[in-house]
Specification:
Shape of chain A: globular
Strand content of chain B: under 5%
CATH topology of chain A: Arp2/3 complex 21 kDa subunit ARPC3
Number of strands of chain B: 2
Number of domains of chain A: 1
Oligomer: heterodimer
Number of helices of chain A: 8
CATH class of chain A: Mainly Alpha
Strand content of chain A: under 5%
Structural class of chain B: mainly alpha
Chain lengths: 191, 265
């Protein structure tokens, strides 16, 4: 039962590479939105957490969220991200925080609430990194609140709700049956 | 697009060592709060990026364009909204102080140095060698490394598939909707087939690899043997000397009269 098989890892990493390319393309978009000011850019930050939640929803096994986010960050880094080496460390922390949420629910809950929570946890992880890297605590108070609020809302919408509905549509194609472990309903169907 | 590159000494560095050392540098930069030190350090990173990656000057200059954007956009929010006492300019919500200005500049240089070092790494490291090195030097499990290498090989197929979907939609005369509805429609129309096909392909590859007795044994033989060389030492020494010189120059010839950009109550 424990441990990931080659199939699980390969599928996770291929999904992550797809999102890694999205992450890479998201960088210029983020910097293009940033000069608008008032942290509008933070609303789209959540896209960088999506690999963890999508991969977990597809494969539904322990460790997948962490591997997916790390792999997506690696793919972003290898393709020459504007953020450089920091994406790797951010990726690991964000993946870990999402993983912790899924672990709290013992990897048995796959509803939209849990996914949103995981997305928010990833955002919290990235904020901790920003505390060290971006001196965000040296922003004026109202501005800091706006910054945190925008990032949380953005991540819950993108990496939470959007990821959930994306996987819902993927389920309709039947492809998720290839990689998911058998559930209770599957066993019940046999009786 | 042509992709001619000259192999330089940066290509010959052991990829694992290069990666680990860059992570150490990343963390060390987080402890630099003196803007003068950081500017000198950034110059040292820039020299490597500009002259030793073996890429033609035109491409290097092209890659530099987004760096300007990074610098400006990273610096501005702290300059406009950072804490500080010595007011320079105030207009509505925007409040520029001496402290926030230097802190903003500092963040700009920080973003710049990460970008320079990161891009230097990706311009001089071949992914295949990186993963072989990670397996050999850092004992990364082969199932992760080979999954990654297989995944990278799938990228051209994904791009081809993307174009097929686009052409199919044109041929079948899929109507263009307007605004946000169009955006979500397009997002779904592309992402679902791309993801589902990628998952199917990944699954088939994994089944084939296991059928051919792919083993997770770390004591396997490797097509590429990756070791260490004198260039590794050069790389480490370059940064040690650069950091010492930057620190010394910041003490002797500072650009700005600020030694710590953090806000102190």
């Amino acid at each position: 039962m424990k441990g990931l098989k080659l199939t699980d890892i390969l599928v996770t990493i291929v999904i992550s590479i797809v999102f890694g390319i999205v992450y890479k393309l998201w960088g210029p978009l983020y910097y293009a939105v940033k000069p608008i000011g008032l942290h509008v850019d933070q609303l789209i930050y959540g896209m960088w957490f999506i690999a963890a939640t999508v991969a977990f929803l597809i494969i539904r096994k322990p460790g997948v969220a962490l591997i997916a986010e790390t792999a997506a960050a690696s793919a972003e880094f290898i393709t020459g991200s504007e953020f450089g080496i920091e994406v790797l460390l951010y990726g690991i922390v964000q993946g870990l925080f999402a993983e912790i949420i899924f672990a709290i629910f013992r990897y048995k809950k796959f509803n939209i609430g849990v996914v949103m929570l995981a997305a928010a946890a990833s955002a919290a992880g990235s904020l901790i990194m920003d505390l060290y890297k971006g001196y965000i605590d040296d922003l004026v108070f109202w501005n800091l609140l706006l910054f945190i609020g925008a990032r949380l809302i953005g991540s819950i919408i993108i990496a939470g709700a959007f990821a959930y509905y994306l996987v819902k549509s993927l389920e309709a194609t039947g492809v998720t049956n290839l990689v998911r472990p058998a559930s209770h309903e599957d066993y019940d169907a046999l009786n | 697009m042509d992709f001619d590159i000259k192999e330089t000494w940066l290509h010959k560095i052991n990829p694992s060592l290069k990666l680990l050392f860059l992570i150490v540098l990343f963390i060390s930069v987080l402890f630099i709060h003196n803007i003068n030190f950081l500017i000198n350090y950034t110059v040292a990173a820039f020299l490597l990026f500009a002259f030793f990656t073996g890429h033609p000057m035109k491409r290097i200059l092209l890659l530099l364009i987004p760096f300007v954007l990074i610098f400006v956009s990273t610096a501005t929010s702290m300059i406009f909204f950072g804490k500080g006492e010595t007011t320079w300019w105030k207009w509505g919500l925007i409040h520029i102080t001496e402290e926030s200005f230097y802190r903003g500049l500092h963040l700009g240089f920080r973003a710049l140095i990460f970008a320079l070092l990161g891009l230097m790494f990706s311009l001089t490291t071949r992914p295949v060698f990186l993963f072989y090195s990670l397996m050999q030097q850092l004992k990364l499990k082969p199932k992760y490394a080979y999954s990654f290498m297989a995944g990278i090989r799938l990228i051209p197929i994904m791009i081809e598939e993307f174009q097929t979907i686009r052409q199919a939609m044109i041929v079948r005369g899929v109507e263009q909707r307007k605004g946000l509805a169009n955006f979500f429609h397009k997002l779904k129309a592309y992402s679902i087939p791309l993801l589902s096909q990628s998952i199917r392909r990944a699954h088939r590859i994994a089944v084939a690899m296991e059928a051919k007795r792919f083993s997770n044994d770390t004591k396997r033989t490797f097509y590429y043997e990756i070791g260490f060389s004198k260039y590794d030492l050069c790389f480490v020494l370059y940064f040690i000397i650069a950091i010492l010189l930057s620190y010394y120059a910041a003490k002797m010839l500072p650009f700005f009269p600020v030694t710590d950009v953090r806000y102190i109550e």
